[in-house]
Specification:
It is built from five helices and five strands, in the order ββαβααβαβα. It is of the alpha/beta class. 22% of the residues are buried.
Length: 100
């Protein structure tokens, strides 16, 4: 994906159910296979990676883990998809997680 001249990979770290219900355009669901591919290829070493979750609560841990493994161009989407939907693209439906 390219925005403003910068190329990056957009990774959705939420659950498969959340990803299938609502996601950002051109985002990929973070799976173990995809993560292995990123670490094996040069995508993380040479390109930017942007991670996001629902509200930005756990994505910083994921970002730190990627950076700790040498992927220094990994960034977190502040506030997650929820904030993005509120402030950038109101066409993206917002949702609330119901936890037991």
């Amino acid at each position: 994906m390219i925005i403003g001249g910068d190329s990056f990979t957009l990774l959705d770290t939420r659950t498969r159910e959340e990803f299938e219900a609502i996601t950002l355009p051109r985002a990929q669901l973070m799976t173990q296979d995809l993560q292995n591919s990123i670490f094996a290829d040069q995508i993380g070493k040479e390109g930017k990676i942007i991670l996001f979750d629902h509200q930005g609560r756990s994505v910083l841990d994921h970002c730190a883990w990627f950076r700790g493994h040498g992927l220094d161009q990994t960034f977190a989407l502040d506030g997650g998809i929820d904030r993005y939907a509120k402030e950038v693209d109101a066409d993206i439906p917002r949702y609330r997680l119901e936890l037991d």
